[in-house]
Amino acid sequence: MKIHRNRPLLLLVTAFILFSAFRADKPFITIFTIGDSTMGNKKLDGGNPERGWGMMLPGFFSEDIRVDNHAANGRSSKSFITEGRWEKVISQVKKGDYVFIQFGHNDEKTDSARHTDPGTTFDDNLRRFVNETRAKGGIPVLFNSIVRRNFVQPKDASIAKDARQTPGEQELPKEGSVLFDTHGAYLDSPRNVAKEMGVVFIDMNKITHDLVQGLGPVESKKLYMFVEPGKIPAFPKGREDNTHLNIYGARTIAGLTVDAIAGQIPELGKYVRHYDYVVAQDGTGDFFTVQEAINAVPDFRKNVRTTILVRKGTYKEKIIIPESKINISLIGEDGAVLTNDDFANKKNVFGENMGTSGSSSCYIYAPDFYAENITFENSAGPVGQAVACFVSADRAFFKNCRFLGYQDTLYTYGKQSRQYYEDCYIEGTVDFIFGWSVAVFNRCHIHSKRDGYVTAPSTDQGKKFGYVFYDCQLTADPEVAKVYLSRPWRPYAQAVFIRCELGKHILPEGWNNWGKKEAEKTVFYAEYTSRGEGANPKARAAFSHQLKNLKGYEIETVLAGEDGWNPVKNGNRMVEVKR
C-alpha cells in the first residue's frame, strides 16, 4: 500500500528523468577534425556565409556522435603541430574516438612556417597524427584536399594559390569546361600513408572533383564564396573565391563525405543521418531560424517528406506552417525548444488584444505534419490564455514532443483535423488541451500545474469522437488538489480516458459541466479501467460513463476517417490522397 500511495510521485520523478537532457550522461563517440580553412569553423559576424565542410558535420550524425572541429584557417600539417593545436586535440582523444585528418592546401604554401614536401615532411606529419591517435586508442582517418574550382589550365606545373578577390579587382582568365588539378602530389601523400599504415582513406578530392566538374563552370559557383557587392555586410564589396565554401557548398560536400565515410566505416555509418534542411543557431545548418526552413520548403511537394532537423537551442520565434507546406517532418535534437511569449490580452500593432488564437507560438495548417523531439512552449507565464501550439492540420503526428504553458497550452483547432500524440508531455493549468479536433493521446504524460481543468473539448454535433487518452499518466505539482478531467467548451464535447493512471489531484466527481446543466445531456465523458488515487468510478459525475469494453475505441478506428490513417501501424508514412 505504501508503494501505491507514492506511485504518482514516482511517476513524476520518472517523467522528469525521461524529459530531462539526460543524454549528457550517456557515453558518446567524439569525432575530432583537424585541417585547414576548407574544413574549419567560421565566424558568423556580418552574415558571413563562409563555412568549412567539417563545420557542417554535426547535422549529419545522430546525437550519439559529437563533432569537435579543430580545423583552422591557414594551417598546414606543420603549423598545426608547431602552434600546439595538435597537442590540444590529442590530449582529449579517448579510446573509440575518431580523428579526421585533412591537410594539403597550406602545406603547398612556400613560407617556412607552413611548407612541407609530399613524400617526406608532409608524410611524416601525417604518420605522427596516425601513430599518436592510435596510441590513445583512437581511430585515425585520412582525407586529401577538396578540389579548387579551377577551370583554367595552369601555365606550368606549379601549385596554384588560393586566389580570392573582390569583383572587378582584376580581370580573371577565361574559363573553359574542364576542371584542372591544382594540388599535385599533395593529394597522394594521404593516400600513400593510409595504405602504408592500414588507415581508412577518404578521397575527398575525387568526391569534390566529380561534383564540381559535373556542375560545370557556371553552376559550381553556387558551392563557393561568390558574393555579389552590397548583398552581405561581411563583404560589402563582394567576393570571388574558388577555394572556400559557402553554406550550400559546405552542406553538400559534408553530405557526400559522410556517405563515403559510412561506406568505409560501418561503425560510424549507423549514426549517419540525412535531412533536407538543418536549422542551427551556431551556423552549422542551412538556416538560423525554423521559419526560414519552413519558408524554403517547396509548396505542395507531393509524395515525399521534407525533413528538417532542429539542432539544440531555444528558438524564440512565431512559427507558421501554411497549408502549402505539406508533408513536413520537424525533428529536434534534445533541447530543441520553439518558444514565444504572446498572450490573449497582449496588444498587437493596432492596439487590439491578440486573443486566444492570436497568442500561439506555433501554427500548423499543412496536412501530414510530423514532429519528433520538439518542445513547443508559450513562455508568457500565468497571464490568461497563451497558446503554445495551434494545430489545424489533418493527420498531424507528434512523437516525444513537449507542450509547455499555463492556460490553453494546446489548441486542437481544426474541425476536420485528426491528431495523434505519442509519448508526449503536456502541461498547463486551465483547459490546457482544448478545441474541436479529433485527437488521440497515447502513452502521454499530462501534468497540471494548478487547480483547474485538463481538457475543454468543443466537439461538433454528430462527430463520433473527440479526445481519447490511452494509457496516459496524469500528474500534478505537489500543491495541486482540485482538477477535473474535462469541462465542455461546446455542448457536444467528448473526452474518453482509457487505462489511464490518475493522480490524487483528480477530484472524485472527475467531470464538470461548466455551469451548463443542459450540456450534461449531450456531452460524452467516459473512462475505462482508470487506476491510481484519482480513479473513483463510484463517485464520478452522474452524466459520465464507465465503458464496459473498448469496441469502437481502437486507435485505428478513432483516427481512420475516410482514408484509413493509422499512425500507430504506419508511423509517419503519408496517406495517399489526390490533390
From TrEMBL:
Residues 277-544 form the Pectinesterase catalytic domain. Pfam families: Lipase_GDSL_2, Pectinesterase. GO terms for molecular function: pectinesterase activity. Keywords: Aspartyl esterase, Hydrolase. Its EC number is 3.1.1.11. Pathway: Glycan metabolism; pectin degradation; 2-dehydro-3-deoxy-D-gluconate from pectin: step 1/5. Residues 34-208 form the SGNH hydrolase-type esterase domain. The active site is at 431. GO terms for biological process: cell wall modification; pectin catabolic process. One of its GO terms (cellular component) is cell outer membrane. Gene3D superfamilies: SGNH hydrolase, Single-stranded right-handed beta-helix, Pectin lyase-like. It catalyses: [(1->4)-alpha-D-galacturonosyl methyl ester](n) + n H2O = [(1->4)-alpha-D-galacturonosyl](n) + n methanol + n H(+). Belongs to the pectinesterase family. This is Pectinesterase. It comes from Bacteroides faecis.
